[in-house]
Design a protein that fits this description.
334 residues, alpha/beta, Rossmann fold, seven-stranded mixed β-sheet, five-stranded parallel β-sheet, 14 strands
Amino acid sequence: MDRLGSKPLHEYLRDHAQKHPDRAAIIWYGRTITYAELDEWSGRVAAVLQDWGVHSGDRVALYMGNCPQYLMAFLGTQKLGAVVSPVSPSFKSWELEYQLQDSGAKVLVADRRLIAQWLPVRRAFLDMRVLVSDYRDFLPEHTPLTAFGETPDLPPLCEAGEWSRVVPSAVPAPTLFHVPVDHVSLMMYTSGSTGMPKGAMLTYENAWFKAAADSEANGIGPQDILLTVMPLSHIAGLLMGLGVPIYLGASQVLLHQFNPEMVIQAVETYQCSFWYSVAPMNRAVLDCLDSGDVRMRSLRHNLCTSFGIPLTETLAREWTPRKPVASFTKRPMV
């Protein structure tokens, strides 16, 4: 289990950036971001946060859907020894306000499309700084996959800085902040099914162990190309879309949100070998495939869990024959 060593994931990022600088870390609708670039961009985010007064132990809330900036902000926050608090991009204003207050977040990193939810509650957080990103910032000029719609205008906000203006000009810190592995790295909020959501505090060692255990249990290696569709704001999506690939130094194809045709296109285009999904995703993909369709054949392994609808033997049997190279596993997350 400790073949790569117990240490924070951002240190794994630095190792991969030095050993394999040109290896793809993220493939984002045709744009490749290498491990060297991911390390540099996360270092720039760390520099911005540090300039804004973020120190070890401070909370930084991430209010975004899947995008490269999510990984950059997550890893940049942890390079300072600060604590990441993921916020679901489906949250409305009152839910956002509750988590920001409960977590004691000092900075909010939010997507431009979600700023409308921040506006009604901003007066309750007069000292909070906001870093505003845009999903389109890292899109190539010509993308082989369907991208996004129009970007809303950003209203004047004295507390906000735009990613495209402040992050590229920041100078990454030359050294990493030493973070003991038993320090808190992540404040992940529960769903609130038995009351208000509660912030579960996970250490750097927790994150390392989960990534190492899941990689080993599922036979995932640095040679794999992972498809990431599950929300990074969810604990399972975060594990499979950030923890595992960063731990291994593997490449991932990152999608903003689930669309069955886009999943098929991504697997075919980039020859993805591993996908973590939930049962409704597999059902939707199957509905888009004709008998004998081979576009998903590159998948070596599909880890799937029940969510919304159960993962049944019938669904598993229907899925596996159409992808003869793939194994289909019903397994709880580690």
